[in-house]
Specification:
Blueprint (H helix, E strand, L loop, with lengths): L12 E5 L3 H12 L3 E5 L7 H6 L7 E2 L3 H6 L6 H9 L2 H10 L4 E3 L4 E4 L5 H13 L3 E3 L3 E5 L5 E5 L2 E5 L3 E4 L15 H6 L5 E7 L3 E2 L4 H4 L5 E9 L2 E10 L2 E3 L1 H5 L1 H11 L2 E6 L6 H7 L9 H9 L3 H13 L9 H8 L2 E5 L1 E2 L7 E6 L16 E3 L13 H30 L1
Parallel strand pairs: 1-2, 1-10, 2-6, 10-20
Antiparallel strand pairs: 3-5, 4-5, 7-8, 8-9, 11-19, 12-15, 12-18, 13-14, 13-16, 14-15, 16-17
C-alpha cells in the first residue's frame, strides 16, 4: 500500500517563519487543517512587536462598515481586499472572543479587547497553539534556502536545515527592528529573483525645523486638533518631538506627507487648533478688550489653548512676517484655525509604527504563494500594502495570515498529485 493510501501516514509538515500576529494566525489555521506546524522566530519569545502594539490599548480592528473599511487601504491589491473580506473584522472579533477576550467598540469606532491588553490574549493564544500541537523554535534566524530547497536556520551559532511540505513567511516589516522585524528577509528574497519593493516608514513621525522655543515643548501633546494635507482632514492628537511631530493625526496622513517630502523635499500641513469652534465665533471671543492682560494670558483665557499650542500660533505669525499683537480678531482667529507647519523630513524607519513596501503582490498567486517558490506563502507586513492606525494594520496581518494558511492547505493536494504523476 502506498503511503498516501495509509491512514497512518505522517501528517504534512508546515514551517511558519515569524511569530507575530500573521505568523501565529497562519500556524493556528494550518494546525486546525491537520498540518504538523513548527513556528520559527529569531527572538527569545513570540509576539514581541504585538505586545508593543498593545502598550496603549490593543486596537484589534475597527467597527465601521466593511465597504468603508476597505477604502482605508488606498489603492490596494485585490488579493489583500479579498483576504480581508474572507476574514473581516467580525471574524477577528469572534476569534478574540473564543480566546476568552471579548471585545468592545470605543467612542472612535475602534475595537479593543475588554482587558485593553495584549498579554492576556497572547498568553491564551499560545496555550491554544500548544494544545493544537504547534511546536515553537526560538532563537532560529532564517537564512534562506540551500541548493536542495531546504530552509536554512542559524541557532546558537550552528546551522540547521529543514524541508517542510509548506512554508509560510511572516517576518514583518522593518520598523522596531530590536523586536525582531529587521527585514533581513528582503535581500534573501531578492536573491531568488522575487520583486521586493523598497521598505519605507508608514504611520511615522516627521521632522520640522523647530525654533528653540518650540523645542522646549518636546513631549507635549496638541489635543483635539484637525490636521489637513492634500485636501484631506483628520481629527485627533499630535505629539511635539524635539525635531518634529508624531501622533495619531499625523500617522493618518503619513502616506501623502511622506510622498510629498520624497518628491519635493518638504510638505506643509495645516493645523486647526480649535476645530470645534467656528472662525466667526472665535473672532467674537477675541474681540473683547484685552485691557492690561498680557497677550499670552488674554489668548489663554479666550481660547483655552495650551502654552504649546499658543507657541505654534506665535511661530506661524513670525513665519508670515506678522506681529501677533497687531493682528485684528478676525485675522488672529484665522491663524489659530489654520496654522501652517512645514515638515522637511521623515523620521527613521526604525521608529515608525509600520512600513510600506515589501513583496509585490504580482509575485503571488491567488493563494498567497510565491510563483517562483512553489510551496512558500507570504503573509503580514512583508507584503506591499499600507494602512493607517486604527485597527487596520492588525486586521490585515491577521487576515493575510489566514489567507496564506488556507492557500497552503488548498495547495497540498496539488503538490501530492504532482508528486504521484512525477
Amino acid at each position: 500500500m502506498k503511503a498516501s493510501d495509509d491512514h497512518s501516514a505522517p501528517r504534512k509538515t508546515a514551517a511558519v517563519i515569524g511569530g507575530g500576529p500573521a505568523g501565529l494566525m497562519a500556524a493556528e489555521v494550518l494546525a486546525r487543517g491537520g498540518a504538523a506546524v513548527t513556528v520559527y522566530d529569531q527572538m527569545t519569545s513570540l509576539g514581541r512587536k504585538f505586545l508593543l502594539a498593545g502598550r496603549g490599548g490593543l486596537n484589534l480592528t475597527h467597527s465601521e462598515d466593511l465597504t468603508l473599511f476597505l477604502t482605508r487601504y488606498g489603492d490596494s491589491d485585490p488579493l489583500l481586499r479579498g483576504a480581508i473580506e474572507a476574514f473581516p473584522p467580525q471574524a477577528l472579533r469572534a476569534w478574540s472572543d473564543s480566546l476568552g477576550q471579548p471585545t468592545f467598540v470605543g467612542s472612535s469606532g475602534r475595537v479593543f479587547p475588554t482587558s485593553l491588553k495584549t498579554s492576556p490574549l497572547l498568553r491564551t493564544w499560545l496555550l491554544r497553539l500548544g494544545n493544537l500541537g504547534v511546536t515553537v523554535r526560538l532563537r532560529h534566524r532564517w537564512e534562506g534556502w540551500d541548493a536542495d530547497g531546504n530552509l536554512r536556520f542559524v541557532t546558537e551559532g550552528k546551522e540547521q536545515r529543514v524541508l517542510p511540505d509548506i512554508t509560510v513567511l511572516a517576518l514583518g516589516g522593518a520598523s522596531w527592528p530590536r523586536l525582531g522585524s529587521d527585514a533581513r528577509w528582503a535581500e534573501l528574497l531578492r536573491a531568488q529573483g522575487i520583486v521586493v519593493r523598497p521598505l519605507r516608514p508608514a504611520n511615522c513621525g516627521f521632522i520640522a525645523p523647530w525654533s528653540e522655543v518650540l523645542r522646549r515643548f518636546e513631549g507635549q501633546p496638541l489635543k483635539r486638533i484637525a490636521l489637513t494635507f492634500a485636501g484631506r482632514s483628520v481629527r485627533g492628537e499630535a505629539m511635539i518631538t524635539r525635531d518634529g511631530l508624531e501622533g495619531g493625526a499625523v500617522y493618518a496622513l503619513s502616506s501623502p506627507i511622506r510622498e510629498a517630502i520624497e518628491r519635493d523635499g518638504q510638505a506643509t500641513i495645516v493645523i486647526d487648533l480649535l476645530p470645534d469652534v467656528g472662525a466667526a465665533k472665535l473672532a467674537e471671543r477675541l474681540s473683547s478688550p484685552r485691557g492690561k492682560q498680557s497677550l499670552s494670558n488674554y489668548l489663554r483665557k479666550a481660547t483655552h489653548l495650551s502654552p504649546a499650542a499658543l507657541s505654534f500660533v506665535r511661530e506661524a505669525a513670525l513665519s508670515k512676517g506678522l506681529s501677533l499683537p497687531a493682528l485684528n480678531a478676525q485675522d488672529l482667529a484665522g491663524l489659530i484655525k489654520s496654522v501652517p507647519v512645514r515638515l522637511t523630513g521623515v523620521q527613521p524607519i526604525a521608529t515608525a509604527i509600520s512600513t510600506t513596501g515589501g513583496v509585490s503582490f504580482a509575485e503571488l498567486d491567488s493563494r498567497f504563494m510565491l510563483r517562483r517558490r512553489p510551496g512558500v506563502f507570504v503573509a503580514g507586513e512583508m507584503l506591499d500594502w499600507d494602512a493607517p492606525t486604527g485597527g487596520y494594520l492588525l486586521q490585515a496581518c491577521f487576515a493575510t495570515g489566514v489567507a496564506a494558511a488556507r492557500g497552503a492547505l488548498a495547495w497540498l493536494p496539488e503538490r501530492h498529485a504532482a508528486l504521484k504523476t512525477g
